[in-house]
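Summary for the funding panel

The consortium committed to producing paired sequence-structure records for every protein in the target list. Below we show the first two records in order, beginning with the earlier of the two.
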Amino acid sequence: MLYPLEIINIPNIRRYKQRHESILDYYYEHYSHFQNERSKRIDSIKEAIQKNTSTFKFSSWHRIFDLQFIENPLSAKGSTLNDPGGRFNIGNIDQLKFPCFPALYIAENFETAYREKNQILPNKTFDEGLSSDDLSLTNQNSTVDLLLNGYVESVIDLTKEESLKDFYKVISDIKLPKHLEKKSQRLNLSTMYHVQSYKTLRKSILQDNWRQLPMQVDIPSNSQIFGQLAHIAQIEGIVYPSRMSAALKCLAIFPKNFMNSNSYIKIQDNNKPQNINFTELSSGTFQYMY
């Protein structure tokens, strides 16, 4: 919101600052309530996620990353350096409140990987007259595209309609308390209610604008919270539908969970950059990947 310069004085600035702090306090209290309720059910949550996992094998999938990380192209460290992180991992939001954990993101083809990295929606037109389709076919000098193949022992596949049913059953009794509902009304905010249906749960985890909450009010999005729960459950990856490229898939990989696993991610031989530290993410190298 823009204000005329004439009304921007010290008392008004103080009021705006106080309101902003009150809003941040409300969202953190909201997050803390649901986090506390999830912690009471954590064993059931882990079981619900684990029972819906499967193996996942892929070939010639794409990873696009910034050139500065060329020496360790399978490292997921970059996913924790920025605010807010990635769709299914928490980055540098507030490390005291929300500990970071890394994820490596790859996609089914170059176009999808490019769009996901740059958050380019399908059919968007740019000022230069280029569409996202045009841009997605152009590999920029500041980025590198790698072809990967791999096998992941334990993934939860969110492209499958029923994959979150058991998780939903565990958390469906968590409700928004009345005092938080009233507090949101006093602050003139849209009330964020508890999940009221399975359809709503899936939509909240797969929504396009997952960055909104962490960027605006410093709390993780629902997809990041789910990623955290999957990570705690020792799941090694999350397969999910690209929101930028319809009907194609992406994979978020949790390298820390490769410790006691036969899973691997390899750079394909015909696509290896020179002078890199590791060409494979596995139980023998995972500790160097975050």
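The next record, for a separate protein in the list, is shown here:
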Amino acid sequence: MQINFNPQIPSIPRLADKTLINIRYMLISPFANAHVYWDQKSGEVLYELEEPILSDEDRINLAKIEVSMQEMININFVVEKTPESLANYVDKTARLVISETGLNIEEDSYEKIFYYLYRNFVGLNEIEALMHDYFIEDIECNGVDEPLYIVHRVFRNMRTNVRFDTVEAS
């Protein structure tokens, strides 16, 4: 599974007129993007994390795989703890679970599911992609069901579309 954890850092222009801001850049290629834009409705610059959209069937399969993998996965087992070797370990474990449980998952769906498996088992769940954003200086969480706020090097304080649904870790 090919994931680029260090995509090129884009050049972001500083625009005097905030209403002209509309920039997308890659955080975890090819799965997670940042979209920073002026939102006319709220009258502010927003930061949206764009991750793969899962179908209902993909969400069900992801949940089944996660339950099975929780009993199997042991990150300490991986000798070389590079992002690539950890991704490879998650990929092999997930494919084993899919094979053993007889799930029928198309490769396109698997790639999206794999991203979430990696994000949730090796990464920092909902904020993993944010942690790969060179421009984020700080992340603030005011509680469950509240949007996270970030401090961006170029656009400063912004509300995001990322939130935690529960106090429990995923």
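Regarding this second record: Residues 18-52+128-163 form a domain with the Beta-Lactamase fold (CATH 3.30.450.370). Helices lie at 56-72, 83-101, 107-121, 128-131.
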